[in-house]
Amino acid sequence: MRAVRFERYGGPEVLHISEVPTPEAGQGQVRIRVEAFSINPMEYKIRSGSWSEGQPLKAPQGTARDVAGVIDQIGDGVSGFAVGDKVYGSAPDAAAEFAVLYSYAHIPNELSFTDAASLPMSIETAARALDLVRARPPALILLNGAAGGVGTAAIQLAIARGYDVIGTASKPNHDYLRSLGAVPTTYGDGLAVRVSKLTDRKIDAAIDLQGKGAIPTLIDITGEPSHVISIVDFSAASLGAQITGGANVKHAWYVLDDVARLVREGKFRPGDVTVLPWTEIVHAHELLEDGHTRGKIVLQVSSS
Q: What are the distances in angstroms from CA 39 to CA 24, 99, 298?
């Protein structure tokens, strides 16, 4: 099969498509013929070596985790799935013609392969952060940096759980946040004052999806460090905030089934996607690293 690989750390130009052995589904796994995969900031950081901490690259290395496609092989111990089923989920080295999924769910008929491929890591991260919220619905949650992929998922999952949401974003994205059910405001200096003008209610929890030094402000807004959660700022723990992420995190892959159900019920929709052929993987990483593309970048795979 063909797959995206790189043999050295560097810019997007180190990525290329090569012939590699086709993986086999193991215990509890399914193998899919990949229709689409999406890329996340984590992948360009791995590719560039910024997350390597000086460790040598185990070459050749693949890329991408979010994927959607059609099952063509079932591993031992798998039930409820059959060859030919459309599924989405997470896989190592998903940028390939075939991938083995370790976390997966059926794709609802309402979602295309490209939309489904945009979701897994974003919805898992959002669910994992929301699981740390200690206040019960209908508590009010502040999402800092709510217009991205994780923010789009977090708004909709929070509302589905019964929470009310205020989300920060740049002004051009405010109508988008309203369409998802959140009350928008801008981020940055003066956030506490702007939030106080939006509501007389207490902010019961705040989730930082953006970083950029917002933790002290979010602690001030909630009044309690443990009511603040960050997925990006690992220094937040030194201020008493909760953090989620890293190698030993307990993942929330149950959300794949939850979101499929919410999509069928008309209570969840994916964010914007930019779709490219997977042969443009170098250009896709350039766009990803540039950071100005709205929503997720999804690549379609063709075996032709």
A: 23, 15, 7
The CATH class that applies to domain 2-119+270-300 reads alpha beta
- Give the C-alpha separation, 98 to 118, whole Å: 17
Domain ranges within the chain, ordered by starting residue: 2-119+270-300, 127-243
Return the pLDDT at 58.
82
pLDDT value, residue 42 = 87
Residue with tokens 């991408």: 64
C-beta of residue 24 within 8 angstroms of C-beta of residue 39: no
Cβ–Cβ under 8 Å, residues 237 and 217: no
| pTM: predicted TM-score of the whole model, two decimal places | 0.94
Look up the CATH superfamily of 127-243: NAD(P)-binding Rossmann-like Domain (3.40.50.720)
What is the residue type of 261? R
- Inform me whether the pLDDT recorded for 291 exceeds 70: yes
- Residue partners of 154: CB distance under 8 A and separation at least 6: 126, 129, 130, 143, 146, 207, 209
Nearest to 245 by CA among 233, 255, 235, 231: 231
- At 54, the pLDDT band (50, 70, 90 cuts) reads low
Average pLDDT over residues 192-202: 96
